[in-house]
Amino acid sequence: MINSVLQKTRSSIDIEYLREIAVLIHQLECIDLDRLLWTTYLRSGTSTLKPQATTSILSLWPLEVKQRMIDRGQTTASDPNEIDHASCLSYVQRVLKKFRNQTEYFQAQLKEKKQLLNNRWTSEIEEAIIKFVQQHVIPLYKVPTEG
Fold first, then answer.
1. Other C-beta atoms within 10 Å of 146: how many?
2. 93 lies in which domain range?
3. Residue 18 lies in a domain
């Protein structure tokens, strides 16, 4: 797929270099999926999953969040039911901040790699790599995150 794009654009780019770019794009896509999942956890725990159509407020932190806190030593509690709202909120906010930092880091790496290619990097090449990652790699990552 990428070879035909390279031939059409008459670009000579080392395939290993393109693999490195594909890995960065893959990492960014995975982080984005994780960020979406953890944003949903945050919205669940802060009662903002649905627009305020009802007057009842139900804050519910998913068991996955509480169990991960226990597994990663982020709480002294051993029972998920003992973990309070403030602890969950703080933990989820830290996880989301980590994802933002990772996104910034990988975006900077990707930008640097593209700049090193100068005029050989085209939107056609980028689209082909993104399409490949989305079709062949991201579905493998979605399975564990979507359950």
1. 9
2. 2-10+26-50+58-146
3. no
